[in-house]
Amino acid sequence: MNMALKLYNTLTRKKEAFKPIKKGEVGMYECGPTVYSYPHIGNMLRYIFGDILTRVLIYDGYKVKRVMNVTDVGHLTGDSDEGTDKMEGAAAKEGKKASDIANFYWKAFKEDFSKLNITSPNIWCKATEHIKEQIELIKVLEKKGFTYSTSDGIYFDTSKLKDYGKLSLLNKENIKAGARVDLGDKRNKTDFVLWKYSEEPGVRQQEWPSPWGIGFPGWHIECSAMSSKYLGEHFDSENKFSDSTIAKNKKQAIIDIHTGGIDNMFPHHENEIAQSEAATGKKFVNYWLHNNFLSVKGEKVSKSKGGLYTISELENLGYPALVYRYMCLLAHYRSSLDFSLDLLNAAKNGYEGLKNKIKLIDDKSVGKDASSYLDDFQKAIDDDLNMPLALQALQALLKDDKVSGKSKLEVVKKMDEVFALDLLKEEKIEIPAEIKKLAEERWKAKKNKDFKKADEIRDKINKQGFVINDKLDGFELKKI
Description:
Blueprint: E1 6-9, E2 14-17, E3 25-30, H1 41-59, E4 63-70, H2 86-94, H3 98-115, E5 123-126, H4 131-143, E6 147-149, E7 153-156, E8 192-197, E9 215-217, H5 219-231, E10 234-235, E11 241-242, E12 255-261, H6 265-280, E13 285-291, E14 294-296, E15 299-300, H7 311-316, H8 321-329, E16 337-338, H9 341-359, H10 371-382, H11 387-399, H12 405-419, H13 433-447, H14 451-463, E17 466-471, E18 474-479
Parallel strand pairs: 3-4, 3-12, 4-5, 12-13, 14-16
Antiparallel strand pairs: 1-2, 6-7, 7-8, 8-9, 10-11, 14-15, 17-18
Helix pairs in contact: 2-3, 4-5, 5-6, 8-9, 10-11, 10-12, 11-12, 13-14
């Protein structure tokens, strides 16, 4: 197991050596999609980052338990406590059941996962299937005095926590009241809803009975309830909560790693920390990792602004999903990536060039061992997932003519366990009859020791986009 992995922890604002709570095992929670519309490429950047992190952990020898939520209720359009529920809004707009909307777009989301070679989490957990757990957590918070009731719901009182805002370095005094929402009955600017009352019970598609009345959970409570259920504490308001075998004391965190985009940092992740640590009296998460935005001309892309591509739309324009994945790996996850079709086109050329170089590797060529390049690769990925530097190690390997072909291919295969770019995957391509005929003529020329003619035919084949590799008993044709 590699112990050299360092990760940038948003909570401490520094790069730290990674040390799991339980030796050899990692519990990781990843903020998942709100399934009310098609995911766009900005959304998928986040999950490519989460996938790279997962693959690096596995590469380093850890057993990873990765949990991802599916928000299918409670996420209001304002990302806080105002606006309409995104699921209810999409259901009304499309004239369908909210559950049908959720299932349709969740399926589309998982299809993009597959196209981008993103590994599925060990556990998908839907908010609507964990209402009981969310209610139990709110009851624990209520018993401990962290909640209060208003005319529209049950709220968390952030003034009860001295360190509220520690993740986002929030200065509560600088938040302007009413800048985003009318405070209404809220006691403090940063207080957030745990349970929202239905304005007219029976009108909403998604509402449930609770000790506080008919309603639905807020956006933030689902992640605390579900991450704790699958990775740490099991809340039970009657018996406080049952301790997991992982977290034995207040100093030890419940979860190793929590990821998301930097837009999740506040208010979502800040509020997760508040309600989780208030309920358990323990540290919630050891390492918080956030990826930066995908931007266009310097501005963050979002669904509300429109005009943002989906993976399927890029495919229709001639850009395979893995070209987009490759483009994302060209920038560090904490750096802003400014998207354009020009950049994507350059990434396509780079990716195809990479694949072509690998196709030309002669597995029979002799030379030195290539394992030193794996050392460079390892240093890069363990340095806070430095994918641009890891790709440089791959490029340097491919340029080294002194390395044996077999060793080179073995190292490429190992690196691709993290890159997941299908670098060695052969596409099924029909070889034109004309190319096959030229290859046969070249083979005859070689047998007759007419090497000049053989080389001329090889050049013709290459110019038409194919490469020929000689074998002991014949030859092999591949598309460049």
